[in-house]
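Thought: the user wants the 3D structure for the chain below. I'll pass the sequence to the structure tool as-is, report back what it returns, then summarize two notable features.
Action: structure_tool
Action Input:
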Amino acid sequence: MNPALRNFLAWMAAALTILVFWIVSARIQNNERPLSFSDFMSQLERGHVAKVTITSSNAGSRIEGEFKNGQSFRTFAPPQTENLVNTFLENGVVVNARDANSSSWLGHIISWTPIVIMIAFLIFFMRQMTSSPEALQAERRLSAKARIHDLLSERADALSREEIAAQLDDRDQPELSTVLYQMLREGTIVFTAEKKYRVKTVD
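Observation:
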């Protein structure tokens, strides 16, 4: 693949990945409504709360849940709140509990995910942009070699250098002489008496 085109596609893939991640994160945040504890208790008393997930800690309880209209919410209950679970059950709320330690690890993983993705893409792009001229030249020659071999394999008759050149892309033209010489030395192709090239057949 053309190095310039490869770099362009890589940058486009990075931009698309970041955009998708940003859109998904924004939707998740927008869908989860932050709520004060007093407002939450008011909604609970009115029977609007459908289910909750409680993550308890010494500082209090993080409560995430869903109203009966499908809207998600989150709030924080102070530690001195007593009989909160009983209040939920009395109001017909589905109650789930979550371990604070596992929740903390999950939160760290989610928060670090975009940073890890960005670092991975940066490493990938730096390797692409700093590829040595020798490596790029070797890649071009390998590409030209594959194209010439495929071309000669498809033809029953031998082809002259000019006929081969006419079938190659412009990017492979500068490598033609070098690649033909390499393929002759490797025994991949042979040079006929008519000064044409063909794939070497196995006797």
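Final Answer: Structure generated. Strands lie at 32-34, 49-57, 60-67, 72-77, 94-98, 189-191, 197-199. Helices lie at 3-31, 37-45, 84-90, 100-129, 133-154, 161-167, 176-186.
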